[in-house]
Amino acid sequence: MTDKSGILDKFDKAIIWHLDVNSRKSYSKIASAVRLSKQAVKYRIAKMEKTGFIRGYRTIANLTSLGYMYCRLHIKFHNTAKEQEKQMIEAFASDGRINWIVRTDGPYDLLIGLLGKNEMELDQTIGGILAPYKDWILSYDFAMVVRIVLYNRGYWLGKKSPERNYMVGNGKLHTKQEPERLDDADKEILSSLAENARLPINAIAKRIGLSPETVSYKIKKFEKSGLIAKHFLLLDYKKGGTGLYKTLLFMNPLDEEKEKEFAEFVAMEPYIIDYTKTLAPWQMELDLEARDNEHYHEIIAGISERFKGFIRDYQTLYVLKEHKFLYCPI
Fold first, then answer.
1. How far is residue 8's CA from residue 320's CA, in Å, rounded to a whole number?
2. CA dihedral defined by 194, 196, 200, 201, rounded to 10 degrees?
3. pTM to 2 decimal places
4. Which of 50, 70, 261, 263 could bond 145 through an S-S bridge, CB–CB 3.0 to 4.6 Å?
């Protein structure tokens, strides 16, 4: 793939691939893997950050392990002026219960992600955030998220990482997952990583008053347990020559084996970055970074052909702008 920005050569793409698998991977390890000096890797990453292609690094927690239920609202506007839309999005972005906001083109205008400890809390939150803007909202659909599996962007090197990272739920379908108990130091570490997953161990240790060894041990423990789902790389898709598409799949019921087969199939598609199981009017969601509309529909056609008889219909949302992304809500 040739990036539209013209800034990425084969070494940049290799570096991006490694950062995408684990955005905390050290300069030294990346340098060894791509056969460049540590200084060259640091320079290239700094350049991609300066151009805005790399937008940041986020640590994503397993929301179930933190004791949260997660849902999404898919909102359709009603004759909303730009200033009203801006006001609404700013209000949503300032709300700590909302962790994700994107403006889209398609059957919905705005998608937001909501956190709550139980159904009553979610219901109260939805009513509370939407009521002030009822005259600007034509309709909305509610999606309760059962499972989110994160994959790396395989298209940079033409290969996928075998890792499956669970942001909601886990690999054991239909099993109850108890939240992990966290002390104040644990929460401080996760909070430090939430906005910058590449924050050095020493900086975190100094901030919270622990030894670097203790901080390193705790982070490794969180990674091993799955509490930390993924150290995620935020990119400007357009500068990399792709666009972000969300597909809502309307499917016939899948048994456990067929669902695993579906998850494994989409995991190997290099342009698919996550898959979501929902309780909603649709049953599955896929996030894809495709080169253009034609490429996007080629990918969906391949999935539809493979699972003919299970996929009844689909809707496409094109992400115009991401206003908030914070999946480690400590």
1. 23
2. 0
3. 0.91
4. 70
